[in-house]
User: Which sequence fits this backbone?
């Protein structure tokens, strides 16, 4: 389907047909006091040439560092065909066409994407994507409150081991909608939620428990025990998962006895570049019994009037263009372009390829922890199984060390001291399949130099 | 032409009301409403015990093209939501005034009732495009 803007003649013809004099007349019902004529603080429009120059300058400011930071967004290899295909005219738009007869390719891509997400998470049904992982978690909390009709408390138990940015986004989005987000402490020795932290909530009305796997520290939570606790206490389970890890970890649909109710996360690792923080793409899947409360839309396979296979939107009646304030979401319908990238990435890799990526991440992270942990003044904070990142404790504040590494072109990780001061001088470092042994040695040498230089000073 | 039984009361928002022998009120949506919505794919019914004020949204009927609220024309306590509708939402399409009932409630007496119409007045309201 081509995306061709209206010509002035088109616009005039349409206005004439509906009897409006000008586009502005269509907004007559908005009281003048609520209208904004100018947007203070928003700079003037730029032409393509200026925009290209501006973005090139901004990108150059990022440099091309050797990257060991994860913390929610991950640098993976993106096979060249992914963006070669995504930038084709037929799909190079975030816009989802509503007419099935004009958008079979887009609808089939959504259908394939949903099938892949449902398969990876082992859930019954997936929507056609959401804005990003953080808002997907917020949406999952809102959805749990709608779906759990016996629970009246709207209380969500949120482990502190969940990504701090996701927790903050969830608080912002659910604030004002009556949700109570209660944070759960974690074990600072093990870096994971301990089932005992839940004990004081036993017997009270809890709507849902969030479980992030792997958690923000990269450690694996005891998802079975946590899921069983939620079941026993009448709470729904919201799984927030790294989709790459699902190639080697138990999927949310198999957690505990009966699995999670909702699985969500960020599909950025599937073919979406880091891009200074976004845009990314959220995913969400759930058990069939909750499907009517799931935000967004679902594409389905059907047959046309001639009996031929076709695709159409089969669940969208509760979206905001139909339900307005009562929609299941007023944030996002779907993230079409990046959903397409994720689908093509997964199609190229296949289950075996994705598992190789996940295993390579595991191996590289083990190499990283071994190499850095050998340095004087550095130790791994937590034992126990982890995925592709780890918390390292330094013998001095992390921020100056990271600054020194950055001067050598190394992004050494995420400084945890602001979000987790109780961990001391803690650094969250990540190695995906894109980091070679030589990269890791480069990092270890630079960190060793910096720590000994600072010690001598 | 849609059916409008003479022994029921109606609302302008296309609900019907039937007073049962025990004084409770049965509520559903009209034949005209189900025809306008098309094939229903899901119905969300209220749970017994829920207290409703007049005009509260008490159920959601969802077709492939829209999800619409059903409003309670009277105040009271829900005694039952139709359990059949969970698995057979099309009962509303097939038998809107019978097996397709949506909820029953015990009127609270206070809180008043919305303006209801008799069959002739409802027919006139539909004819007027209401």
Assistant:
């Amino acid at each position: 389907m081509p995306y061709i803007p209206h010509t002035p003649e088109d616009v005039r013809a349409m206005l004439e047909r509906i009897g409006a004099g000008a586009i502005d007349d269509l907004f007559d019902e908005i009281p003048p006091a609520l209208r904004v004529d100018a947007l203070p603080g928003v700079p003037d429009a730029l032409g393509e040439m200026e925009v290209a120059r501006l973005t090139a300058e901004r990108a150059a400011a990022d440099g091309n560092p050797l990257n060991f930071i994860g913390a929610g967004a991950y640098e993976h290899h993106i096979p060249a065909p992914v963006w070669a295909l995504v930038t084709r005219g037929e799909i190079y738009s975030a816009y989802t066409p509503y007419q099935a007869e004009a958008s079979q390719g887009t609808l089939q891509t959504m259908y394939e994407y949903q099938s892949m997400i449902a398969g990876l998470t082992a859930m019954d049904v997936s929507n056609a994507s959401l804005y990003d992982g953080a808002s997907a978690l917020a949406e999952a909390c809102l959805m749990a409150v709608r779906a759990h009709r016996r629970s009246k408390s709207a209380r969500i138990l949120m482990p502190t081991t969940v990504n701090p940015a996701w927790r903050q986004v969830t608080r912002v989005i659910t604030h004002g909608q009556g949700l109570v987000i209660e944070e759960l402490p974690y074990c600072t020795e093990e870096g994971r939620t301990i089932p005992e932290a839940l004990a004081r909530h036993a017997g009270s009305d809890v709507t849902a428990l969030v479980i992030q796997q792997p958690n923000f520290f990269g450690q694996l939570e005891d998802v079975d025990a946590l899921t069983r606790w939620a079941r026993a206490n009448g709470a729904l389970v919201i799984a927030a998962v790294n989709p790459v890890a699902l190639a080697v970890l138990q999927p949310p649909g198999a957690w505990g006895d009966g699995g999670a109710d909702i699985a969500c996360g960020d599909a950025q690792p599937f073919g979406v570049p880091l891009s200074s923080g976004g845009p990314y793409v959220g995913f969400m899947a759930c058990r069939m019994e909750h499907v009517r409360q799931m935000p967004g839309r679902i594409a389905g396979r059907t047959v046309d009037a001639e009996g031929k296979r076709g695709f159409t939107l089969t669940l969208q009646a509760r979206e905001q263009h139909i339900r307005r304030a009562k929609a299941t979401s007023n944030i996002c319908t779907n993230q079409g372009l990046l959903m397409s990238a994720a689908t093509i990435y997964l199609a190229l890799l296949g289950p075996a390829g994705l598992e190789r990526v996940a295993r390579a991440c595991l191996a590289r992270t083990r190499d990283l922890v071994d190499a850095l942990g050998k340095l004087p003044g550095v130790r791994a904070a937590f034992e126990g199984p982890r995925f592709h990142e780890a918390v390292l404790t330094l013998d001095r504040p992390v921020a100056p060390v990271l600054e020194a590494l950055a001067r050598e072109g190394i992004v050494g990780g995420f400084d945890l001291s602001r979000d987790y001061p109780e961990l001391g001088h803690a650094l969250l470092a990540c190695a995906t399949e894109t980091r070679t042994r030589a990269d890791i040695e480069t990092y270890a040498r630079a960190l060793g130099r910096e720590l000994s230089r600072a010690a001598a000073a | 032409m849609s059916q409008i039984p003479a022994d029921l009361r109606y609302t302008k928002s296309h609900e019907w009301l039937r007073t049962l022998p025990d004084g409770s009120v049965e509520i559903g949506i009209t034949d005209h409403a189900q025809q306008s919505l098309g094939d229903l794919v899901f119905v969300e019914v209220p749970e017994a015990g829920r207290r409703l004020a007049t005009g509260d949204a008490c159920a959601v009927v969802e077709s492939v093209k829209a999800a619409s609220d059903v409003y309670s024309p009277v105040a009271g306590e829900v005694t039952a939501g139709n359990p059949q509708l969970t698995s057979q939402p099309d009962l509303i399409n097939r038998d809107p005034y019978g097996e397709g009932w949506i909820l029953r409630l015990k009127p609270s007496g206070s809180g008043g009732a919305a303006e209801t119409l008799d069959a002739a007045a409802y027919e006139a309201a539909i004819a007027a495009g209401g």
About this structure: Residues 45 and 59 of chain B are 5 Å apart (CA to CA). Chain B touches chain A at residues 41-42, 44, 47, 62-67, 69 (CB under 8 Å). The first strand of chain B starts at residue 9 and ends at 10. The domain at 9-115 of chain B is CATH 2.40.50.100 (OB fold (Dihydrolipoamide Acetyltransferase, E2P)).
